[in-house]
Amino acid sequence: MPLNPNLNSLAYFEAVARTGRVTLAAAELGVSTAAVSQQLKQLEEQWGVRLFRRQDRRLTLTLDGEMLFQTTTAAFRMIRGARSAVLRQRDSRQLNLRSSPSFAVRWLTPRLKHFLELNPEWGVRVDASPDFSDFETEIMDLDLRYGSGNWAGLHAECVIRDYVLPMCSPAYRDMLAAAEADPVRQLAQARLIHSVKALYQWDVWLAVHGIEAPDQQAPLRFDRSSMAIQLALDGMGIVLESVTLALDELQSGALVPLSTDFAAVEFPACWAVCPDRHLNRRIVRLFLDWLREAAAGFQEVAQQRLTGLGCPIRIAAAGEPGLL
Length: 324
Hints:
By secondary structure, the protein is an alpha/beta fold. It has eleven helices and twelve strands. It has helices at 7-19, 22-29, 33-47, 63-92, 101-118, 170-179, 183-189, 202-208, 225-233, 243-252, 282-308; strands spanning 52-55, 58-61, 94-99, 123-128, 142-146, 155-168, 192-195, 220-222, 238-242, 256-257, 264-274, 313-315. The strands form two sheets. Strands 3, 4, 5, 6, 7, 8, 9, 10, 11 and 12 form a ten-stranded mixed sheet that branches. The protein has a two-stranded antiparallel ribbon with strand order 1-2. Strand 7 (192-195), helix 8 and strand 8 (220-222) form a beta-alpha-beta unit. Helix 1 (7-19) crosses helix 2. The two termini are 54 Å apart.
């Protein structure tokens, strides 16, 4: 028996078994009845079994034929469903995009208006999820991911180099400064707000600066950066967070660096990720071109704001613990 059965013959067999007649199957397939009969004959010869009983011009499945039909009809139903889904996706002219939740809410969504104005014929579906896309099983064009860039076998392009620094509300900073002038000692008295899924964690930052972690009785820990940033805005402590996610608050003055004695740490953080084959899709190319331009403009604004605040920038060292 051939290791690779003739799929054309299986398609003809499935149509006959489903419709019950060679003539109906031939009409559905757009071929002659002779062509269908020939394919069935070849299939039976290849497999060495009888698939139909022929009685009074009627076809009934044998036990072997019934077993094959149960498998082929399920397989072709799935193929037809997949084809319909692919055609719907193509006809809908839609970009299917997944993103890290806080990045989607704080950076991407406020800028999508510009992309849609440039490309009014396209729709966008954004899935804000912490789960990375499975491109083999999901209908997803692109994933915007906050991470370290280590996605084997995929196109991973850094679009934003982020900055991380300790930030708090002006009132919280002034409260600490009134009690202690030394920012290192201020940290010992401060409440630290932890973004537990952030790339750069407090323990790494404190170790790099040679600062002993404060003895906190009730630390604040959140799995969403947007929540950690909000608590800092509310004056509940100091957050070590992304300038990419908190730039609006730094621009408005609602958040300020704890001290310009501490440099903002720069490192690659925001990535566009997809299989290489997706780069051939027009909508992916359009979105990536727009994303690169939007990210470059944002990067310039972020650098200007940090410079205006008097905050130095330090590029993270290769192999810096917990980061690269």
